[in-house]
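Tokens in:
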């Protein structure tokens, strides 16, 4: 099965966005020191061969403007029950498609199409793929900010997940990035 991997930043209290979806708080975090590069994002993108993102995340990235697309030519599947192919802007149709398949079926389809590692992004999408057992790795960057409320990254009503720390790094901008292996549930 295609491996599911998450690379995401949260506030120290576990929020990926404010309640209205605003992520401008990330702009308040200074960039890391020049020698620290991009905190591994380019290397991470090079390690995946496709991406599954939620509709809200897709719409948020589109709001940055036509010329801002951080994923290059990476195949992106927007996971949505309501999105139709005509909802994808013409200038993104060469690399973006949409699907409403359940997580396991979508990951199987990605595997059948030759994909080995999928970047899973977006709050609900990460939660649902995690609950379905389709996330095997999480790279979590904790930002030195407390939002107090907003959109949580991890489910508050789901099963317990055990993780194994693979590595952890701190950066000059106060970010702490940890990569975990998601261990199989013993249910």
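Residues out:
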């Amino acid at each position: 099965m295609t491996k599911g991997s998450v690379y995401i930043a949260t506030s120290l209290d576990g929020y990926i966005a404010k309640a209205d979806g605003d992520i401008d708080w990330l702009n308040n975090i200074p960039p890391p020191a020049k020698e620290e590069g991009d905190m591994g994002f380019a290397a991470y993108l090079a390690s995946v061969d496709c991406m599954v993102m939620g509709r809200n995340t897709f719409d948020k990235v589109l709001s940055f403007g036509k010329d801002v697309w951080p994923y290059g030519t990476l195949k992106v599947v927007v996971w949505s029950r309501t999105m139709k192919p005509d909802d994808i802007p013409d200038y993104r149709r060469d690399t973006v498609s949409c699907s409403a398949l359940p997580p396991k079926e979508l990951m199987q389809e990605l595997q059948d199409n030759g994909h080995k590692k999928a970047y899973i992004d977006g709050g609900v999408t990460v939660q649902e793929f995690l609950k379905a057992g389709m996330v095997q790795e999480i790279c979590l960057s904790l930002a030195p900010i407390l939002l107090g409320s907003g959109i949580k990254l991890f489910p508050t009503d789901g099963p317990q997940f055990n993780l194994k720390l693979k590595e952890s790094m701190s950066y000059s901008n106060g970010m702490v990035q940890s990569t975990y292996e998601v261990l199989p549930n013993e249910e």
